[in-house]
């Protein structure tokens, strides 16, 4: 693949605005750690790679490359963004009056406000997975490839529903997920299963289900439309599961960690009792 096919996507507006707000708000006690700053910058870089690099150019010719683009926007950029702990810093960068009015409005609305309602685990889970499935319906998917505005809308929905979903796992504040670690493990496992079901469908269907790709006279590498579809399923199955797998490993570690911490304390109690006797 040539490295000359770079473009300017409207998604760069998100990157520029987010980067400016994060930089302006990162002062005083809000100064991010190196890890937080690196995570935030990596998220913005991931968005640029997904939307403006040759990945975006070849996504119109290869289904599996398009799937890589989706994985980056759904499971890589949002978690990295949230690990940067952006909200206090970006909020602090806003002018005082607008942010005070907005905070008052949200506080008065309470849990009836759309933002707070969607930030709950079940609505976030449903919205995230429904967005993935809806955009992979053949008519909707083909529309994203034929109409640039529809494609931009799809990418925006992937990233922002990804933020809602992963915020229930990463707990960046200010809207806490209130999920214990076993629940977070089940939460991400459910989303991974949805992706697996879609991947299995793409593998088992004996023909290319997306008319846009099937109608292409040729593809880079000379592969068939069906092979391209099966490769896309593999991308969704393996790379698409990495973020969920990392969550499982961290989740099990954090779930069992209190027991390890309690062990020495209980041992100390038993030793004290032996001394007293």
The number of helices is 14
* Cα radius of gyration in angstroms: 22 Å
What is the averaged pLDDT score? Answer: 85
Order of helices and strands: HHHHHHHHHHHHHH
- Count of structural domains: 1
List the helices and strands and how they pair.
Layout: H1 12-25, H2 34-52, H3 54-58, H4 63-83, H5 87-92, H6 96-109, H7 114-118, H8 121-135, H9 138-146, H10 148-170, H11 181-204, H12 211-214, H13 225-237, H14 242-276
Report what the structure shows.
Residues 261-277 have low confidence and may be disordered. Helix 1 packs antiparallel against helix 2 (34-52), helix 4 runs parallel beside helix 13 and helix 8 (121-135) runs parallel beside helix 11. The chain is mainly alpha-helical and 277 residues long. Helix content is 75%, strand content 0%.
Q: Keywords for this structure?
A:
single chain, 277 residues, mainly alpha
Provide a short characterization of the protein structure:
With 277 residues, this protein is mainly α.
């Amino acid at each position: 693949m040539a490295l000359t096919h770079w473009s300017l996507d409207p998604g760069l507006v998100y990157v520029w605005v987010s980067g400016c707000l994060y930089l302006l708000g990162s002062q005083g006690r809000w100064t991010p750690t190196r890890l937080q700053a690196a995570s935030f910058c990596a998220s913005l870089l991931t968005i640029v790679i997904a939307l403006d690099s040759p990945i975006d150019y070849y996504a119109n010719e290869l289904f599996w490359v398009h799937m890589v683009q989706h994985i980056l926007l759904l499971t890589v950029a949002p978690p990295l963004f949230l690990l940067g702990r952006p909200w206090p810093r970006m909020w602090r960068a806003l002018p005082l009056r607008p942010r005070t009015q907005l905070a008052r409005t949200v506080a008065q609305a309470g849990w009836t406000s759309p933002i707070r309602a969607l930030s709950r685990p079940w609505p976030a889970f449903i919205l995230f997975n429904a967005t993935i499935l809806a955009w992979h319906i053949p008519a909707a998917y083909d529309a994203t490839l034929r109409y640039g505005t529809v494609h931009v809308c799809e990418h925006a929905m992937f990233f922002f529903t990804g933020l809602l979903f992963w915020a229930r796992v990463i707990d960046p504040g200010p809207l806490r997920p209130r999920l214990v670690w076993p629940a977070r493990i089940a939460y991400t496992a459910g989303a991974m299963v949805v992706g697996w079901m879609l991947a299995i469908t793409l593998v088992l269907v004996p023909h290319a289900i997306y008319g846009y790709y099937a109608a292409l006279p040729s593809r880079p590498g000379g592969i068939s439309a069906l092979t391209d579809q099966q490769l896309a399923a593999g991308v969704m199955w393996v790379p698409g599961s990495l973020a969920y797998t990392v969550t499982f490993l961290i989740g099990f570690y954090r779930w069992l960690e209190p027991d390890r911490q309690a062990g020495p304390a209980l041992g100390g109690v038993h030793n004290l009792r032996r001394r007293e006797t």
